[in-house]
Amino acid sequence: MTWCTRRALVRTAALLPLAAAADCSTGRADRYFPQHGTAAHRTVAYDLRLSYDPDSGRLDGRARIDAVAGPALDRVELDLARLSVHAAEVDGRAARTRQRQGKLFLEAPRRIAAGAPFTLDVRYRGRPGPLRSPFGSIGWDRTGDRYDGTLVASQPLGAPSWFPCNDRPDDKAAYTFRITVPRGHQALANGTLHERSQDGRTEVWTYHHPGPMSSYLAALYTGRFQHEHLPSVTTVGGRPVSLHNAFPPRLAEAARYDLGRQPEMLRHFTELFGPYPFESYGAVVVDADLAEPVENQTLSVFGRNHIDGKRGWETLVAHEMAHQWYGNSVGLSDWRHIWLNEGFATYAEWLWSEHLGEDDADTIARRERLSMGRRDQDLCLAEPGPRHIFDNRVYVRGACTLHALRLAMGDDRFFPMLRAWHETHRGRTSDTEAFITHADRHTAQAVRPLLQSWLYDKALPELPTGSGLRRV
Ligand SMILES: [Zn+2]
Question: Most exposed residue of 24, 248, 286, 358, measured as fewest CB within 10 angstroms of its CB?
Answer without folding.
Answer: 358
